[in-house]
Structures are given as C-alpha cells and as structure tokens.
Amino acid sequence: MSNKLNIILKEVTSIQSGLLRFKNKEGQQNLHVKVAADSNCLHCLVTEDMPHITGKKIHLIQKYRNDYFFISGSIAGEVQHVAKVLSITIHKASWFVKKKKGSVTWFSEKHTYETTPQKMSVA
Fold first, then answer.
1. Residue 1 — pLDDT band, cuts 50, 70, 90?
2. Which residue has the higher pLDDT, 118 or 116?
3. Contacts of residue 12, Cβ cutoff 8 Å, sequence gap at least 6
4. For the whole model, what pTM was predicted?
5. DSSP alpha helices (H): ranges in the chain?
6. Three-class SS of residue 13?
C-alpha cells in the first residue's frame, strides 16, 4: 500500500463516520456510514435501506475539525448481515486542511493518493 494512502486511511478510520454519495435513478443519494479499512479497500457499514449498488462509482466525504477527506472509488462488493457492508476499491483519496488568514479561508492539500490507470494489452 502507498505510504500516502496509508496515512489518509489511518485518519479516515479514526474518524469512523462519513457521508457516502452515489447516483442512481432517483438522482444523487447520500448515506451515513461507519468506515473501516484494509490495504487498498474501504469497508462501509450501512444501516439504512438502500438499493444494490455494486459496480457504481461513489464518493466518501468526511470532516473533522479543520481536516477534510474526500475519497472516490467504486463498490467492489456488498454483504448483507444485520447491516449491509460495502467494500470500496479506492481510486483517489485526498486530505485537505482548512487554512485561514484574516477573513480569507482556503483548503491546502496535505496528502493525495491516486491509482494509475491500468493499460490494456491487446492479444
């Protein structure tokens, strides 16, 4: 695992809660989730009713004090027990810190991880 991704995921899992966003027939949907991670994968625990979204692109958003986390990926799998667990393959993860000087505020990038696209070989 990339060192930058490891640093981001440590912070994301320490916050635990997040907002999972995805699009479906009804438009953009938002779900509150609990977050855990292992290697290059996030796992989100969903207690609300939701449609099957395997393969869909998602965004996970978190805020803690002046830290903002934005992770994009796709749903790799769903498991239904008492609650639904979504496994998310991470494509990009960013950690921003809100800065302020006087009346001006901005976001400063602290860490970013992005997967490199796989080249397809022609046989």
1. low
2. 116
3. 18, 35, 37, 42, 60, 62, 69, 71, 93
4. 0.85
5. 3-15
6. helix
The domain spans of the chain are: 3-114
> What are the tens digits of pLDDT across the range 52-63?
888 999 999 999
3-state secondary structure of 3: helix
Could you tell me which residues are beta bridge partners of residue 36?
43
Return the residue matching tokens 């991880």: 113
Calpha distance 57→72 (Å, rounded):
7
Beta strand extents in 1-122 (DSSP E only): 17-24, 27-38, 41-46, 57-64, 67-80, 84-101, 104-114
CATH number, span 3-114: 2.30.110.10
- Residue 106 — φ and ψ, nearest 5°? -155, 170
Q: What is the pLDDT of residues 5-51, one digit of tens each?
A: 999 999 999 999 999 999 988 899 999 999 999 877 899 999 888 88
